[in-house]
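REQUEST ID: PR-0412
SUBMITTED BY: lab tech R.K.
PRIORITY: routine
TASK: structure prediction, single protein chain
INPUT:
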Amino acid sequence: PEATLAAGVRFAQSRSPEALDQLVLGVLSFHLPPRPEGRPDLTTFPRSTRLVADLAVDSLTLVELGFLVEDLLSVKIEDDELRTIVTLDDLLRLLRQRLGFAPVPS
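STATUS: complete
OUTPUT:
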């Protein structure tokens, strides 16, 4: 999606944590199961939104997301770390930590 690509460019240029969040949430949204109302804008969702219970992310999608994020951001995410990600906040916190950013604001 165009907004996700723009966030990727902004992140590459500025290393902005906010652009990182928008990029990651855009990539995740693109990989969610199809919905009749279209793809959700996860940037508007509470950070406590659960990936499996609320967004129907399955284990294969989570692994694919892990590989994609590793390629995009050049960070390594271990399989056991993927299993600890429950919420959007958990995902963003882990990636910010890997990239040396401050924790995700509450």
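NOTES: The CA atoms of residues 66 and 98 lie 13 Å apart.
REVIEWED BY: pending
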